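Raw record, unedited: Iron-sulfur cluster assembly accessory protein
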Amino acid sequence: MSTDASDGEAAGPPVNVTAKAAAEALSLLEGEGMDTDVSGLRLFVQQGGCAGLSYGMRFDDEPEEDDRVTEQHGLRIFIDPSSLNYIGGAELDYESGLQAAGFHVENPNVESECGCGESFRT
């Protein structure tokens, strides 16, 4: 498992996480009774959606052996190597509004997105 310092290495973290997204994820992790010193948010890419690929997120108790692990704003983020190829350099944010609230990935690698913004193509 490769690890980045919380400030990032010279190349920077694989994904930038905003303070708002980290605070929301940490609150959810703690609500699940998970140890935030070991557990983290897994960010991944999977086949699916009308554009071909979609984002996935879940909480994991610990990283897998080949995960890229970074910590930002106290939140540990786990990314598997194949997902990193699609989302390296992306930003994870949390948006809340009158119509919807949730995590949002701003990905500079995306060539096109479907109309609903739930899937993408690189």
